[in-house]
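Re: that backbone. Tokens:
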């Protein structure tokens, strides 16, 4: 069976996601859709040439009719926050309209796909997508928790002086200021790690602020997000059962929780958290519920 992945929105992040999926040979074909047709066509040509000596992945520019039969649809469409926007909720209201419009095309042409939301603010946009699509919650997931976990791993590796590949680190909750790094679950080669209160405060602050630090230095975060999205796409395509924190939809909120990823999307799994972490997670959920209520989707 041929596997197709579609990426809707081919700006800096969307194009990097399409490139990463093609380079890894995750799908037989990648369809790139954008309101700027020439940009989609140029990116498709460039990415296709990048895999000429790597694999047989076909990269195609197209419209919504071309996403038909996609196993996974990645949504990056949306506008960045501008200086005149008072807060993230204002951005959410703008991007919710865009995401809802995109979802109309997905619902029509790829009704059996798993949808991965990347548009910001990610948890709110994943909820907006869930409401617009009407798909089961398992098939509408946000990528933020896996990215936050990569960033947590990076910061902890530097703190402990170990290799990232030897670490297990996870983050749940909002993909934003109220994210919850799970220090109780940190392992180095399977062994638990003790952190002081001061360590926890500093590392949490660093993890929450690292995206802004990168943006100040280079203007955008793209390599790590693209890699994390590609991991999720691969888990669905290969039905691998990867366990990762992802934003998952519930009746009144979308929030980062541990899930098992496979061909049918995401299935929530139970993780033990400390009492402090559980309290922080509940507070993160409440914050997002309040924003969902104000978003009005």
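Recovered sequence:
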């Amino acid at each position: 069976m041929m596997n197709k992945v579609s990426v809707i929105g081919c700006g800096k992040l969307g194009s990097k996601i399409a490139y990463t999926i093609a380079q890894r040979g995750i799908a037989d074909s990648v369809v790139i859709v954008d309101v700027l047709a020439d940009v989609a066509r140029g990116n498709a040509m460039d990415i296709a040439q990048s895999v000429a000596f790597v694999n047989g992945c076909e990269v195609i520019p197209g419209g919504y009719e071309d996403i038909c039969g996609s196993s996974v649809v990645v949504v990056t469409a949306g506008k960045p926050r501008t200086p005149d926007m008072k807060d993230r909720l204002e951005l959410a209201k703008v991007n919710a309209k865009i995401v809802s419009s995109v979802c109309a095309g997905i619902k029509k042409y790829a009704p059996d796909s798993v949808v991965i939301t990347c548009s910001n603010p990610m948890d709110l946009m994943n909820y907006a997508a869930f409401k617009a699509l009407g798909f089961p919650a398992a098939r509408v997931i946000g990528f933020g928790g896996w990215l936050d976990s990569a960033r947590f791993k990076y910061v902890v590796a530097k703190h402990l002086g170990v290799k990232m590949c030897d670490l297990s680190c996870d983050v749940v909750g909002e993909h934003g200021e109220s994210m919850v790094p799970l220090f109780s679950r940190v392992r180095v080669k399977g062994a638990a790690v003790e952190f002081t209160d001061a360590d926890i405060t500093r590392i949490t602050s660093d993890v929450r602020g690292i995206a802004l630090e990168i943006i100040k230095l280079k203007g955008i975060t793209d390599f790590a997000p693209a890699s994390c999205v590609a991991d999720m796409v691969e888990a669905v395509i290969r039905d691998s059962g990867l366990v990762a924190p992802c934003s998952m939809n519930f009746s009144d909120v979308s929030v980062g929780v541990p899930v098992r990823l496979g061909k049918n999307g995401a299935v929530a799994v139970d993780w033990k958290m400390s009492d402090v972490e559980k309290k922080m997670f509940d507070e993160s959920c409440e914050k997002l519920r309040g924003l969902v209520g104000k978003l009005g989707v």
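The radius of gyration is 18 Å. The helical segments are 12-24, 37-50, 88-109, 122-133, 144-160, 197-218, 223-238, 275-295.
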